[in-house]
TrEMBL record:
Protein name: beta-galactosidase
InterPro entries per the UniProt record, alphabetical: BetaGal_gal-bd, Galactose-bd-like_sf, GHD, Glycoside_Hdrlase_35, Lectin_gal-bd_dom, Lectin_gal-bd_sf
Chemical reaction(s) catalysed: Hydrolysis of terminal non-reducing beta-D-galactose residues in beta-D-galactosides
Gene Ontology biological process terms from the UniProt entry: carbohydrate metabolic process
Organism: Triticum urartu
Family statement: Belongs to the glycosyl hydrolase 35 family.
Keywords: Apoplast, Glycoprotein, Glycosidase, Hydrolase, Secreted, Signal
Main location: secreted
Length: 666
């Protein structure tokens, strides 16, 4: 494996090559290298960590589909992956006075904080100083060996090591790169691995001890209820007449008005920018104008067997075209062109354009200038007497939807809309409001609603907006079987879920639900089938972890002092398991200390195995919500001398009897 060795030296030897490197990063040179290195380190600390856990699913998905909430007492997948880093910084931040920043290589950076003068070529042991250090290797491919504080530290590519005491490494960001194992897509109705099991074969490459980190893998189980729920609560679709469904047997619908509906509509000449008109009060902005079509025009199109087309130079994010109230077509994209055939009748025709945004840009240079809506020319082509330029015509503008501004999604506003029972023709109907009532699943487990049968729109529960939904299918191509995170981020890196819907399940916070008579309202833009919507709960049934002797000690070890020093090297790593709040570890289904193989739900014993493992782990964990076991020969004995050993455990969680609700009578 390629690599190089480097020694940090005096701050005044900071070389001009470093300055050019900082300019390449786009960072300013502040006149003193400490500040510059601080900036580089903060950038690299964040990017190396964030890119290591980017699963390619989009940040928008987190609030709606990451069911592990703070209420559950456990970490979301991304939070758990970041947590060791955050905790390590917490250990260091109390000393945060910059003292030394140094590097003589464009790929290395260091930042040292202390309450006194630090001799970086000497050990920190016994000098009485409080000191913390961050060491960064920004090279995307090569390992680096760094000599500082009287010892050597290895830095994997594109990583930062955190030394809370300028001696022991508490964390290195590179070891989150195995997180993609937990980001492999699963159908969420079956199971989803949401945290990570960190493994690496780097240990064999180096002669010194290389610590890694590990975390619990949780396998979510989706059911109509927790194990203690009544058998009458079966997973069910929202089909009328299905006995025992959470939902009412009745759906109601209401049609949204296309174009101007009143309120504060106004007319002006020309095409206005979307965000300047809506002021972020709605995703939707209607543009309406009139087009007069002659007999000659209709005859020309009929004789040629063609249709005229509406052309718009650029649109963002979504544009829909209506002619006389009927949807003609749509376009989606970031400043892409639109060409839509349209069918007019003789006489005056109403042409309505709907501009939609799917969120606001919140990063990037000059983001305030990007805007939304339409740019360039808007014209009709294919007429016998030439094109008609509509760019400077008089357009009537209407912000938002009538149902949206009438708040017909709120329980107290149901009289503001004309609701009627859903008919067959209402299914797959665009620009339609749907509503129904449902009972909340019993228990305290998180609730999810399946909207994969719908197209694009928004959903509310008891007046609370769940968020936008969009059953958009990702492209078939662009995903790879392997992934390499180091290096600058790009949207095409480490993509997954090709050919799959971007999201189908959405979280409903328990706090928004009442025992019965909950109101679900959806606004559907493109057409969907609400009869196939289902409601389910989830809980973590299986938890796994695999920790090696070579892993980092727990961060709690930093509070254990001996003669004023932290003796991290003498503390064994720990395997920790935890069920959801209100659930207990009821069974250890696998436990092996030695050389186990496989992964979560597929562990098997290796040639080296401590026979007492299952009994010892069961004693420590069964009956508890969480447990911790030291990974060392002191606990399990040494089943195979001279061999690096792992502890692998798989356990089952069940609802605690103290929180179980009584079963319903059948």
């Amino acid at each position: 494996m390629s690599g190089y060795s480097h020694t940090f030296h005096a701050c005044e030897d900071f070389e001009s090559s470093d300055a050019s490197y900082f300019f390449r990063l786009g960072l300013p040179i502040f006149g003193n290298p400490y500040q510059c290195l601080h900036s580089v380190l903060l950038v690299k600390l964040s990017t190396a960590t964030e890119e290591a856990v980017n699963c390619g699913n989009g940040v928008e998905d987190l609030d709606a589909s990451d069911f592990k909430s703070a209420r559950d007492g456990t970490m979301t997948s991304m939070t758990q992956q970041h947590k060791p880093n955050y905790d390590s910084i917490e250990l260091s931040k109390s000393y945060m006075d910059p003292v030394i920043g140094r590097s003589s290589s464009p790929s290395l950076a260091a930042h040292v904080y202390s309450n006194g003068k630090v001799q970086t070529n000497r050990s920190m042991t016994g000098n009485g100083l409080i000191c913390s250090a961050f060491l960064a290797n920004i090279d995307e491919h090569k390992y680096a060996s760094v000599w500082i504080f009287g010892k050597s530290y290895n830095l994997p590519p594109w990583s930062v090591s955190i030394l809370p005491d300028c001696e022991n490494v508490a964390f290195n960001t590179a070891h989150l790169r195995q997180a993609e194992q937990a980001c492999l897509p699963h159908q969420v109705a079956m199971q989803a691995e949401v945290s990570l099991e960190v493994r690496s074969n780097i240990v064999s490459v180096f002669s010194w001890r290389l610590f890694l980190v590990g975390a619990q893998t949780s396998v979510f189980t989706f059911e109509s209820g927790s194990p203690s729920h009544s058998s009458r609560h079966k997973p069910s679709l929202l089909l009328p007449g299905v006995d025992g469904s959470y939902f009412s047997s009745t759906w109601w619908t209401s049609k949204e008005i296309i174009g101007t509906w009143g309120g504060e509509s106004f007319a002006t000449q020309g095409i206005l920018e979307h965000l300047n008109v809506t002021k972020d009060t709605s995703d939707y902005l209607w543009y309406t104008t009139s087009v007069n079509i002659s007999d000659e025009d209709v005859g020309f199109w009929s004789s040629k067997g063609v249709l005229p087309a509406l052309k718009i130079d650029q649109i963002r994010d979504v544009a829909r075209v209506f002619v006389n109230g009927e949807l003609a077509g749509s376009q989606v994209g970031h400043w892409v062109s639109l060409k839509q055939p349209v069918q007019f009748v003789q006489g005056l025709n109403k042409l309505t354009l709907l501009s939609e945004i799917v969120g606001l840009q919140n990063y990037g240079a000059f983001l305030e200038k990007d805007g939304a809506g339409f740019r360039g020319q808007v014209k009709l082509t294919g007429l016998p007497n030439g094109d008609i330029d509509l760019t400077h015509s008089v357009w009537t503008y209407q912000v938002g939807l009538k149902g949206e501004f009438s708040m017909i999604y709120a329980p107290e506003k149901q009289a503001c809309a004309e609701w009627s029972g859903m008919q067959i023709d209402d299914i797959l109907s665009p620009f339609t409001w749907y509503k129904t009532m449902f009972d909340a699943p019993k228990g305290t487990d998180p609730v999810a609603i399946y909207l994969g049968s719908m197209g694009k729109g928004q959903a509310w529960v008891n007046g609370h907006l769940i968020g936008r939904y969009w059953s958009l299918v990702a492209p078939e191509s662009g995903c790879s079987s392997s992934c390499n995170y180091p290096g600058a981020y790009s949207e095409s890196k480490c993509q997954s879920n090709c050919g799959m819907p971007t999201q189908s399940w959405y979280h409903i916070p328990r706090e928004w639900l009442q025992e019965s008579d909950n109101l679900l309202v959806l606004f559907e833009e493109t057409g969907g089938d609400p009869s196939k919507i289902s409601l389910e709960v989830h809980y973590t049934k299986t938890i796994c972890s695999r920790i090696s002797e070579s892993y980092y000690p727990p961060l709690s070890a930093w509070s254990r002092l001996t003669s004023g020093r932290v003796l991290v090297d003498t503390i064994a790593p720990e395997l920790r398991l935890r069920c959801d709040d209100g659930h207990l570890i009821t069974k250890i289904t696998f436990a092996s200390y030695g050389t186990p193989s496989g992964g979560c739900q597929n562990f098997s014993e290796g040639k080296c195995h401590a026979s007492s493992t299952l009994a010892l782990v069961s004693e420590a964990c069964v009956g508890n919500n969480e447990c911790a076991i030291s990974v060392s020969n002191d606990v399990f004995g040494d089943p195979c001398r001279g061999v690096l050993k792992d502890l692998a455990v798989e356990a089952e969680c069940s609802l605690s009897s103290a929180t179980k609700e009584p079963r319903d009578e059948m």
